[in-house]
Amino acid sequence: MRGLYSVSQISQLESQESAEWYYWRMEILVVHEPVDEETLSALARAWHYTLVKGVADIKTGIVALGGEWHMDANNRLIEEGSEQKNLWGFNIYPKEKGDAAIEYTSLINIRPMQGNRSMEIMDEDIRKAVRKVVILAVPFLEL
User: What is the pTM of this model?
Assistant: First the structure.
């Protein structure tokens, strides 16, 4: 991982539209420690402005955040050794709190062989497992 940038560094790179800005935008943050509000807001600004796409490995408890598509974060976790059957996509909204801060919708969640035929995670136990992992990664959302 190339490392985290401060919000002021991100703003400077963004205004310059530099090659470094392009490479930063392609970064997927694999979360091993809780993420702060500033970092999550920077990820939102870099990608989708109001939300951050994420993927949770419900077996290992690791979360990947960022990317244009959930598959970007999904692939990063696969590279780190995760198994597809344990990866579930979600969106988080940095300016929201509680239930309004998360949704369990992603194309990677369509898994007929695992009983999920929708973009939305339908199994309540899987939702709870995703939520538990996201709470550890992004505690300030008050999930």
Answer: 0.82
